[in-house]
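Title: Comparing notes on inverse folding

I've been comparing how different people in this forum approach sequence design from structure. To keep things fair, I'm posting one structure and asking everyone to reply with a full sequence. Here's the target:
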C-alpha cells in the first residue's frame, strides 16, 4: 500500500498518479483506479476526480506479473542491415512492441527470433526499438542491434539529421499546398486513450507537401521534425483534414477496404556508424495503391 498526501490541486486523479507512479503508463494508472485499487479520502477513486491539496490517496499495488517475450519465427522484410543498425519494412496490423495486453505477434517477437543481439536501451519490453510505428501504419522503421547503434540513431533523430517521411491520403485540400504544422500535442484531456493538440503540450512539428489532388482528397508527403505519439494523425485531424479511414481521429471511411488509416512510412535517410549516408525508399503499400487508384477514378 502506498499512501500519498496531495500537495497539488486542479489535476485529474489519473494525471496526478502518472506524475507520482512514473513506472506505470497513464493507461495503467487508469486501470488501477477502475479496478478499485485507488482510494481518495477513504472512498473508491474515479479517474476524473479533481485532486485537492491535502487529499489522502491510497494506492494498493497489485502483484505485477512477469511478462515473457517469446521469439516468433516471422520472416521480416529487411531493407538494410549492418553490424549495428537495421531498417525493417513493418507490415500493417503489427504492433511495434508488446504491451501488457498483447505480448505476441509484434515486431519485437520477430526480432528476437531473427537476431542474436538487440539494443536494450529502451528496456526489456522494447529490445532494438528506437522509435515506433502504429499498428496500422506500415513502412520503414529503425531497429538497433547494439546500444552504440541505438544512441547513434537517437542522436540523428534528435538533431533532425535523420529524415523520416510518410505518405498519407487525407480529406480535402490543405489551405496552402506546402507548409509546416507547428502545434503542441499531449494526451486528450477528454479521452486519454487518444492524443490531441493541447495548449502547453509537447512541441510537435510536421512538414507537409501536396503530391497529388483528387476529387475531395489529397495525397500528402509528410516529414516528421519531432516524433510524438500519433503526431501526423493528430495534426491533420486538428486541421480538419483527417487521414482517410482513420476512424480514431475522425477519418472518413472510403468505399474500399483498407487496414484503417492510409498512412505509410516510405522513406528513411540516415548515416551509419561508418559515416556512409544511407537512403531507403519503398513503393506504395497495398492500401495506398488501392486508395489512389480508387480516387483517380472518381469523377
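Reply #1:
Here's my take.
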Amino acid at each position: 500500500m502506498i499512501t500519498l498526501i496531495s500537495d497539488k490541486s486542479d489535476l485529474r486523479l489519473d494525471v496526478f498518479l502518472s506524475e507520482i507512479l512514473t513506472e506505470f503508463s497513464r493507461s495503467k494508472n487508469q486501470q488501477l483506479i477502475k479496478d478499485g485499487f485507488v482510494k481518495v479520502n477513504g472512498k473508491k477513486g474515479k479517474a476524473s476526480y479533481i485532486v485537492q491539496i491535502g487529499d489522502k490517496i491510497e494506492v494498493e499495488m497489485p502483484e505485477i506479473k512477469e511478462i515473457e517475450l517469446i521469439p516468433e519465427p516471422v520472416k521480416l522484410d529487411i531493407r538494410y542491415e549492418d553490424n549495428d543498425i537495421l531498417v525493417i519494412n513493418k507490415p500493417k496490423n503489427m504492433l511495434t512492441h508488446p504491451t501488457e495486453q498483447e505480448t505476441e505477434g509484434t515486431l519485437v517477437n520477430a526480432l528476437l527470433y531473427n537476431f542474436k543481439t538487440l539494443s536494450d536501451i529502451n528496456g526489456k519490453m522494447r529490445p532494438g526499438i528506437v522509435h515506433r510505428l502504429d499498428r496500422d501504419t506500415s513502412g520503414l522503421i529503425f531497429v538497433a542491434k547494439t546500444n552504440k547503434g541505438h544512441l547513434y540513431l537517437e542522436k540523428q533523430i534528435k538533431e533532425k539529421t535523420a529524415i523520416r517521411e510518410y505518405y498519407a491520403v487525407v480529406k480535402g485540400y490543405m489551405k496552402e499546398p506546402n507548409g509546416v504544422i507547428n502545434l503542441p500535442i499531449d494526451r486528450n484531456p477528454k479521452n486519454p486513450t487518444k492524443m490531441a493538440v493541447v495548449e502547453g503540450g509537447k512541441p510537435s512539428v510536421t512538414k507537409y507537401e501536396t503530391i497529388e489532388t483528387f476529387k475531395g482528397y489529397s495525397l500528402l508527403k509528410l516529414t516528421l521534425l519531432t516524433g510524438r505519439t500519433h503526431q501526423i494523425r493528430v495534426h491533420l485531424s486538428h486541421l480538419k483534414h483527417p487521414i482517410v479511414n482513420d476512424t480514431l481521429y475522425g477519418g472518413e471511411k472510403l468505399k474500399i477496404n483498407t487496414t484503417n488509416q492510409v498512412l505509410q512510412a516510405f522513406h528513411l535517410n540516415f548515416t551509419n556508424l561508418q559515416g556512409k549516408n544511407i537512403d531507403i525508399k519503398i513503393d506504395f503499400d497495398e492500401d495506398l495503391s488501392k486508395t489512389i487508384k480508387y480516387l483517380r477514378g472518381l469523377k
